[in-house]
Each structure stands twice: as C-alpha cells, then as structure tokens.
Amino acid sequence: MRICIIGDELVAGTGDPRGLGWVGRVSAHSEFATPPTILTLAMPGETTREMASRWQHEVSPRLPADEPRGLVIAVGPADVTGGVSSSRSRLNIANITDQASNLGIPCFVVGPPPIAGVDQQSLKTLSQSCAQVCERRSIPFVDTYAPLISHDQWFEDMAASRARSGDGYTLPGQSGYALLAWLVLHQGWYEWTGSQPST
Fold this sequence. Notes:
By secondary structure, this protein is an alpha/beta fold.
C-alpha cells in the first residue's frame, strides 16, 4: 500500500526532538501484511487553499492506480492565521476529497489540533468544517481538537517546546506528537489501512 500525507509542519514533525512526529509514530505502531510506502508531502504554513491547488500534481505520480493507495489530508491552523473563512475551508477540503474520490483514491482526514497562539474558537470551527465534509462523504475523520483542548499535557508540552512556526505559533514537542499519534491510531486508522496494532 502507498499512502501520501499532505499537510503543514505538523505532518513534518517540526519540533519533535526524536524526529518522528505523529506520522512516524503512527507508522511504527501499525503492522501491515506487506510493508507500506508512506510519503509525507509537507508544506509549512499551508492553508487548505494552497493544499487544494497542489495536492493532485504531487500525489498522483506517487499513487499508481494498480496498487492499494490512500490520501491522508492533515489540516493545520494556517487557515485561521491566514484569514481563510470556515466556508472556504470547507469548500477546499470538499474539493480535495471529491477529486480524490473521482480518481479512486480513498481519503482519511486529520483535523487541526488546538495550537497555542492561535484563536481557539476559530480552530474549533475549522475542525467542525472538516468533520462536516467527512460526515457527508463517509470519510474517516480524526478529531484532534476536542480531545486536546482540555488536555493539560498537550499544552504543557507546547509551553516547553522551543519550536515555532513561520507564523509565530508554538508547535508541540515529543509528548504532543505522541498524543496526536494516539488519536489518529484510535479514530479509524487501523480500519482504513487494514493494518493491525504492532506488538
């Protein structure tokens, strides 16, 4: 199986001293019948508008139609900091998932987590927009906002982190990325990929 993961610096694991991010941890805790190829196509500070304009050009050559494949869409906080409206975010995500569906590429969406230094109500609205798109299309959606908004360790990890995005908000560290990975693994990842928890 080949899986492409598009998103911002959270997909790249920026700020994780172990260099794994949530993607590396999810991969390490997944056992496949045949080892997959997981490709991260991160663009720091990327909005859903920018993601919608680049994804097909970058993903299509990496996901041949003659083998199992999938697209993970990891939405970060850039729509909020970049002034993208929630309705436009919803449309951008819908366009990506619809285009992918037309190409026969299954999608899996990871919503934005609560990030220190970014308006929390706007992030909540963005997460809800992602959820609405996925619900209407029966696409697996990972809600990272609701479980982490009141999670002390999440915010303590960001407070201790020295990593900053280009927009000035604080990124998680090792513990934060482990929490993100746990949420992805336990909100449909195994079912979507056909993998099992690694022993």
